[in-house]
Design brief:
Elements: H1 5-9, E1 18-19, E2 22-23, E3 25-26, H2 37-49, H3 59-79, E4 87-90, H4 93-105, E5 113-117, H5 126-129, E6 137-141, H6 151-157, E7 162-168, H7 180-189, E8 193-197, H8 209-212, E9 216-220, E10 230-234, H9 265-279, H10 287-313, E11 319-322, E12 334-339, H11 344-352, E13 356-357, E14 359-361, H12 366-371, E15 380-384, H13 391-402
Parallel strand pairs: 3-13, 5-6, 5-7, 7-8, 8-9
Antiparallel strand pairs: 1-2, 4-10, 9-10, 11-12, 12-15, 14-15
Length: 406
């Protein structure tokens, strides 16, 4: 299918917003994307017709149970998971990661080792750093100045004592895409679990959890045009072996045993709708086929825009870009930089006043911020390309950044 940007932009009501006479341009997607009407309607429809708690004998409760299961099926199709039973839900990725950390902690023995990386968001560091309280030895793998994981350092810290390797699929601050098949092979060689933070990868690339075969994988629906819901994939049979926080009435099997309390059913209906929206871009006989095709189309569109932005930004003498160039390999459409003489948070504020929404700061990737010694610069300015951004918006942003030169 062809990509009709005008048609797709019409799907997002928020794009009509005007700020101080300027049309809003949303380059803040890495922090959360805008939401299409299809998703908004699904959330509203649930409240209008099916609002009830789960597992009741009456029609609205039966419909709620069906929505939850259909959303598991939709996310399994989105991630390329083997079955809906591998998909669990929570308030957000961080909450699920801490719940998983508490469960893993009960299997930790003194001397077990855990690897995290300096390239990762704190949500993929903090929960595993907490395992040190239970006797684990936690190592943090260094990042290179080019914004990649130092594989020599990773190799030196991996051992037969390693219990868990936690790594991001893509950096939310620099756009780096890590070689996850290599991490899978290396972690498996020592019998360690591989946990993947796919929050920044999932909105931009087709996913195949069955092929990648992580033990755990986490993502967030609000990064791919859905509501604030966290998603946890667990390899079949693994969640059943962990001692999760669980009330006595809760079902004891996967995927339920890590889902504490009542789920946000209306938001889950929105998650299903978000997957359906992405699938509407593609062709195919099954939801999985349409999702794969749709994500491939989205990736090509975003990649072209991001490459153009990066190329033009690199020509500006007052700008320093961080992270690997697009010519170095697969990369998310996220570009981070600093402007000479202007604090990054101030840059974001100045651009925001012109209706250009970008982030300035550390974006919870604190070790990236510290490793690159960005404290005096106020962190990074981060520009994220999403499916609704246009070439005209990119040109407008580039012109505004040129105007920041002193």
């Amino acid at each position: 299918m062809s990509f009709d940007i005008a048609q797709r932009r019409a799907d997002f009501p928020s794009l009509a917003r005007v700020v101080a006479g300027h049309p809003a341009a949303y380059f803040d997607g890495p922090g959360g994307t805008q939401v299409p009407r299809h998703v908004i309607a699904a959330i509203s429809s649930y409240y209008e017709t099916s609002n009830a708690n789960a597992h009741g004998p009456f029609v609205t409760s039966v419909e709620t149970d069906a929505i939850v299961w259909e959303t598991r099926e939709a996310m399994a199709a989105f991630l390329g998971a083997s079955s809906p039973e591998t998909i669990s839900f929570g308030a957000n990725m961080t909450s699920l990661a801490f719940a998983l950390s508490r469960a893993i902690a009960r299997s930790i023995r003194a001397g077990d080792e855990v690897l995290v990386t300096d390239l990762d968001h704190e949500a993929n560091r903090g929960p595993w750093l907490a395992l040190a309280e239970h006797g684990a030895i936690v190592h943090s793998v260094k990042m290179t100045t080019g914004g990649q994981i130092d594989m020599d350092d990773f190799q030196s810290k991996l051992s037969d004592k390693t219990k868990l390797v936690a790594v991001g699929y893509s950096s939310n601050s620099l756009g780096t895409v890590n070689d996850l098949p290599r991490f899978r092979e290396m972690s498996r060689s020592v019998g360690a679990w591989l946990l993947v933070d796919a929050v920044h990868y999932a909105p931009h690339f087709p996913m195949n959890a069955s092929e990648l075969d992580p033990d755990f994988l986490l993502c967030s629906a609000y990064k791919f045009y859905g509501p604030h819901i966290g998603v946890l994939y667990c390899r079949e049979g693994l969640l059943d072996s962990l001692k999760t926080d669980k009330l006595r009435p809760q079902l004891d099997d996967a995927p339920y045993r890590i889902e504490t309390g009542t789920l946000n059913f209306a938001a889950l209906n929105g998650v299903k709708a978000a997957v359906e929206y992405i699938a509407s871009f593609g062709d195919g006989d099954t939801l999985r086929e349409r999702v794969l095709d749709g994500m491939a189309i989205i990736h090509r569109y975003e990649d072209e825009l991001a490459r153009h932005f990066y190329t033009e930004l690199a020509k500006m003498s007052h700008v320093t870009i961080y992270g690997q160039p697009f010519t170095a390999g697969l990369r998310a459409p996220t570009v981070s930089f600093t402007v000479d003489g202007v604090n990054s948070e101030e840059v974001a504020k100045l651009l925001g006043e012109q209706g250009l929404f970008v982030w300035g700061g550390h974006f919870y990737a604190l070790r990236v911020y510290e490793s690159l010694r960005l404290e005096d610069k106020g962190g990074l300015v981060r520009v994220g390309i999403s499916l609704y951004n246009t070439r005209e918006e990119v040109e407008r942003l580039l012109e505004a950044i040129r105007g920041l030169q002193r």
